[in-house]
Structures are given as structure tokens and as C-alpha cells.
Amino acid sequence: MAALQRLILPAKLTDRLSTGWLNFAVLFLILLPLVIGAGLVIKSLPLLEQASIGTMLHSAEFSPQQGHFGFYAFIMGSVWVTLLSFVLSAPVCLLAAIYLTEYSPQWLTQSMYFVIDVLAGIPSVVYGVWGVLVIVPLLADYVAPALGLTTTGYCLLSGGIVLAIMAVPYMLNMLMEVFRSVPIELKEASLSLGATYWETIKWVVLKKGLTGIIAALSLGISKALGETIAVLMVVGNVAKVPKSVFDAAYPLPALIANNYGDMMSVPLYDSALMFAALLLFVIILVFNSITSFFLYRIKEQ
Amino acid sequence: MQKRKLLEEQFFLWLMRIVTLSIILVFLFIMGVIIKKGYHAMSWEMISQEPQGGFYFGKGGGILNAIVGSLYLAAGSTFCALLLGLPVALGMNVHWVTKTKFVGAIRFLLNALWGVPSIVFGAFGFALMAYLQIRASLLAGIITVTLFIVPIFIRAFDEVLRTVPQGLMEAAYSLGANRTQIAFIVFFRQALPGFITAILLAFGRGIGDAASVLFTAGYTDHIPQTVQDPTATLPLAIFFQLSSPIPEVKARAYAAALILTAIILIISLVSRLSTRRFKKNIL
């Protein structure tokens, strides 16, 4: 870039050119969510003309051949697998984040950053492979028989476990950031009043970081909600409302990804899949807006 | 009372230690399984050949088509993301630095876009392809993955650009530099390690994502010659081969997973090392 300086380009011209490109790029970026939303709405219009949104969200009957598109089973599949992953990962991340920011030796925290980095970088399809190799047989051959149940292993719980592991790096990283931003004076004040270390964490750090904690956890939820390939590989993909964690489920992203092949041959099918994508898009935008709002509140303080 | 307090602290301390240890163990377990399974299925043939006849029934060949396809796709979309994202990230910190509301709104937008799952980008890319009348190809894949990684790149680069001291901008202005010179010479230079991290992060996301290319990039046994050819990608190669009932084909999925993980690890390592190397220019 220093070469740019030595070039005998007139500074005014480069400034005008680059500012023009900059304005175009930022306009493109601002329009992008609108265009994505509009594109998905237009594509799902043929279906929306046939049935109302309310019936599609409530009906569990999904038979594209007959023209019935009820998303209830898929929405429940998404909700359950996300909740399950949340229940499994949130306490783990919270405890680990407290430990790594308040107690652990420096070298451990440093090497944990490497672990977080790599965990966040591993592609979701690799998590899927691991789930198929480890979690699925584990549940089918050991856990379920021990509880007197039978399952193929391709079930809600497998999806929940794999998702929980995938959510860990995002949640943990953000929680650690939240805890580190708690002012040290507050902690010192609490300690000097005779509180133990753990009491300080419980009453000062957790309380001060509450908005940040909510933001981090909701980020984890939205990541889990949109995850596709890894879940698709282990969750079983049966279009029924799951009754237990050992039943197969069929979350929304899996529905979109799985039916790509047949969607052109059945009328309205592509429209239904675009509607599913639109649902995901809207839900996750709402979730992320909440996260951003809470984060904004922290910065204000 | 004192005893109860101490007991409580000890209990949670041990719980936290166990939980942290379990995260590390799960990490090692994942890496261990991927490396062990992949190593057994790995051969020179896997990474040096395209699929031969009868490849999907367990006969000879490799997944060079998917490796090269993925690299093309990730490199192309990283380049496009750079073209779009670099000026925006610099502009947010130089051109519009006084318009805090506007910059705040862009950051809010980027946060929202950052979380949108890749399958939604995939579905949108598919709709866009129908609109633009292009079929599943390297080009369509690059467009879709670019949209997906632009917010990731800008967010990561912006994080670092925000730490550049404001005094530098004032000093540069007072020496007669214009906004473009400040952005591309002063700020870019200062944030170079962050720039490299951001680029590598975007590249890693682009190469590892399956859901966005599922609809848009297609799949083929050959290395694409032009951007209009369909292209194979590593994540899809893993995904398709794992669902095969034939053990030899399944084993290749493990090998492909190892290759992809190795690429990600190399990226992570290069990112760390280069960050250190380029730090010396920073004030």
C-alpha cells in the first residue's frame, strides 16, 4: 500500500474513485437484507396465495404430493433441538467462562483461546461426521438400552449434543468477553467488604454482566437454530412431532437442505422450501436484533 | 457459616474445573476421531486424482476435484468479499467516523447479517440463480458464498480498525492527507494483522460451509475449467460419500473430513503466526 503513495496518481482522482466505490459497497450492504427478504417473499408467494400463514404454522400435515404444507412438525423439531442444545451448553459455557476469567492460570486461558479458535473453525460437516461416528452409536448401543429404550441413534438427543458442542466456542468466547469487561474496582469493593471470591462472582460479576450473558446465550440459540448440515446428518429426519429425546426429528434447515432434489418436480414445493427459509431468516433476524440491543445497552453503561 | 461458604466455593470451583476440562477433552476427542479415522482411509491417490470410473462403488480415484473446487470457490468469494468489505470497513472508521449514528446502524446490520444461517443464503442464492438465469456453477457458488462471508470479514476487520488511535487520523489530516490516503495507507497499515486474520477467517468459513453451496455450486467429477462449470466442494464430498452404504466410499468421507480439518488448522496456524510477524509495523 505504500506503493500507492509513490504512484503519481492524482490524489483527488483516487479519492473520488475510492469514495464512489465505497458508497456503492455500503449501499449494497444496506440493501442486502432487504433484497434477501424480498427475494424469499416473492418466491414463497405462490404458496402464500394458497394457504394462510396461520394454518401453515399450525398444521402438522406435510404431504407435498397432495399440496398440504404444514410446518408445525418442523418448527417443533427446530425448537426442541435448539432448546436441548441450549440446556446442554449454556451451563457448561457459563461455568467455564467464569473459571477461565476469574480463577484459571494464564497459560490455561491462553490455550483455551486456541481451543475456541479451532472449535469455531471446524466445519459443520466435520461435526456431523463425528456425530455419526461417535454420538449415534453411543446412544443406540449404550445409553438407550441402559434406560430400557430402543432408538436408532439418529434422534433429537444426538442433534442436541452435536449442536451443543458447536455452540460452545461462540457462547464461551462472548461470555468471557462479558466477564472481563466487569470493572475490577467493583470486584475489589466487594472483596474488601469481606465477601469470598465466589460470593463476589455470584453477587457482583454475574449481576453486572447480566445483559451481556443474555446476549451471549441468545447468540448461541440463534447459531443453533440455523445450523444445517451437522444436524441433518444425525437427527433422523422424520416429519413428526418428536415425543421424546430418543425420537427422530426434522428441523427446518434440514427440510430445506434435504428436499433440494425433488422440489422442482412437485408443484409449490420450491415455494414451500423458500417459505421455510423465510421463516428462519425472520426468526433469526429478530433474535440477533435482541442480542444487538442488549450489547448496545452494555456499551451505554 | 464460614464453613458453608467455603464448602460452596470449593464445590463450584471443582465443578468449573471439571466443566472446563470436559470442553478440552471433547475437543481432543473430536480431533482424535477425525485424525484416526481419516488417517486409515488416507492415501496419495485421494488427493492427487479425480474420481475414476466406478468411484462411487468403491473403485479407484480421489477427491482432487473437490479439493481444487473448494479452493477455487473459497478464493474467489474471499476476493469478492475483500472488494466489497475492505472499503466499507475502512469507511466506517475513517470517512464516517463522525457520523456515529450511521456507523452504529451499519454495525447493527452487520451483526444481524452475521447470524443469518448459511442455508438461508443458499436458498436466496438459488432464487437469485433462477432470476439471473444461471445454472448451478462455480459463479453461482461464489456469489452466494460472497454474500455469506462479507459480514464475517467486515465485522472481524472492523474490530481491529476500531482500536487504531484517533490521533493518527488527526496527525495525517494535519499533514494534508485526504480520506482515501488515511484509510488505505495509515489505517490499513496499522490494522494489517487484523486484516490478515479477517481474510483467513472469511476464507475458512467459505471453504467449510456446505449449506450455502448445496443448491448453488452443483457437483461434478471434474475440476471446473470456467466459472460457468459446476464444481465439487469438500463439504459436499464428505456429505455425499458418508451417506453411501459401501464401506470404501464411507472411508473416503473420513479422509475428506481429515483433509478439510487439516486445511482449517493450517489457516488457523498461519493466521496466528502472520499476526505476530506483521505486528512490528504497529505504533
From TrEMBL, chain A:
PANTHER family: PHOSPHATE TRANSPORT SYSTEM PERMEASE PROTEIN PST, PHOSPHATE TRANSPORT SYSTEM PERMEASE PROTEIN PSTC. GO terms for biological process: phosphate ion transport. Residues 75-291 form the ABC transmembrane type-1 domain. Part of the binding-protein-dependent transport system for phosphate; probably responsible for the translocation of the substrate across the membrane. GO terms for cellular component: plasma membrane. It comes from the Bacteria. It comes from Arachidicoccus ginsenosidivorans. Gene3D superfamilies: MetI-like. This is Phosphate transport system permease protein. The chain crosses the membrane at residues 21-42, 71-100, 112-139, 151-172, 210-235, 272-296. The keyword Cell membrane applies. Keywords: Cell membrane, Membrane, Phosphate transport, Transmembrane, Transmembrane helix, Transport.
TrEMBL record, chain B:
Keywords: Membrane, Transmembrane, Transmembrane helix, Transport. GO terms for cellular component: plasma membrane. PROSITE patterns: ABC_TM1. The keyword Translocase does not apply. It comes from the Bacteria. CDD domains: TM_PBP2. InterPro entries: MetI-like, MetI-like_sf, Phosphate_transprt_permease. One of its GO terms (biological process) is transmembrane transport. It is found in: Cell membrane. Pfam families: BPD_transp_1. The chain crosses the membrane at residues 12-35, 71-96, 108-132, 138-161, 182-203, 251-270. Residues 67-271 form the ABC transmembrane type-1 domain. Coiled coil: none annotated. This is ABC transporter permease subunit. It comes from Arachidicoccus ginsenosidivorans.
